[in-house]
Amino acid sequence: xxxxxxxxxxxxxxxxxxxxxxxxxxxxxxxxxxxxxxxxxxxxxxxxxxxxxxxxxxxxxxxxxxxxxxxxxxxxxxxxxxxxxxxxxxxxxxxxxxxxxxxxxxxxxxxxxxxxxxxxxxxxxxxxxxxxxxxxxxxxxxxxxxxxxxxxxxxxxxxxxxxxx
Length: 165
Fold this sequence. Notes:
DinB family protein; about 60% helix; 6 helices; DinB; metal ion binding; Four Helix Bundle (Hemerythrin (Met), subunit A); metal-binding
């Protein structure tokens, strides 16, 4: 394939990198609202059916997306470690906000052509840069859904799932 043909294939995308970042950050804003909706004690300790408390799930999301976005750019992957010792709502929200800035910073360093590059994230997950980002988003949605069940069990209305502002 000539470089001109390759360039045309790359520029004919359904979702641009900027749109994908906005989509991801929209989910992150919604997850942040979900964290805020929890009373601190319940955020740290409430669970149903053997699932982990939401605070532990948030630490998983931070442990994946933080080193993940860095690994996507540098191709240097840290060992996966979700034991972040974040033991308060304040600490979780601060880490969440710091990661939001990190994602925005690293995102601009992903060349357009790299979104289809094959990678091995964390030495475990084979896919493209794009499919790995979609995995990060899907995992977050999955855990936010669990948090919605927790909130409802506590009599708390979760944020509207479409409110990503």
